[in-house]
Amino acid sequence: GKRIGLLGLGREGQATLAALRRRGHREPVDVFVDTPTDVPDGARLHTTPDAFAGLDCVIRSPGFAPTHRLRAALDQYAIPQRTATQLFLREMRDSGITVIGLTASKGKSTTSTLLHLMLIEAGRDAALVGNIGVPALELMDAILATRPLVVMVES
User: Contact at 8 Å (CB) between 108 and 132?
Assistant: First the structure.
């Protein structure tokens, strides 16, 4: 099995861990956070970058800017880094599900909500995901089962 790390265990980090478990990843997951916190069973907590060595991949939460001490340390290793958004979009692409992505500095929430409501009003099955509410990976299995048009919002 692969040794996977998570940079962050906020809402998106928790959704990522749950998605890994639903996809059959049973090995311990190394979780890197700023301050000690409770972690779920099967996760190992780290507040320093010492355990980056030996990881096969790290999935970053969006709150870790390139200048953050853990992210900056991670960048010094030759470890592939992914985001939950990348994992979600790859799964949607591989499943042939259309995603309308919205990103901007202002107006994302309003625009995406209006687009989502217009699609529903037009009789289309649509899901609204991203940093406007529910993390995309949290809804991934339901989306794969129902195959709606997905409106995704990211900063």
Answer: yes
Q: Which two tokens stand for residue 52?
A: 């980056």
**Better-predicted residue by pLDDT, 34 or 152:** 34
Which of 138, 148, 142 has the alpha carbon at shortest distance from 11? 138
**Which comes out higher in pLDDT, residue 132 or 38?**
38
* Reported pTM: 0.89
CA angle 150, 103, 78 (to 5 degrees): 95
Residue with tokens 């853990």: 70
Distance from the first to the final alpha carbon of the chain: 32
pLDDT of 114 > 90? The answer is yes
Q: Is 121 exposed, middle or buried (0-12, 13-18, 19+ CB in 10 A)?
A: exposed
Q: Residue 13 belongs to what H/E stretch? A: helix 11-22
Report residue 122 CA to chain centroid gap: 29
Name residue 57's amino acid.
C
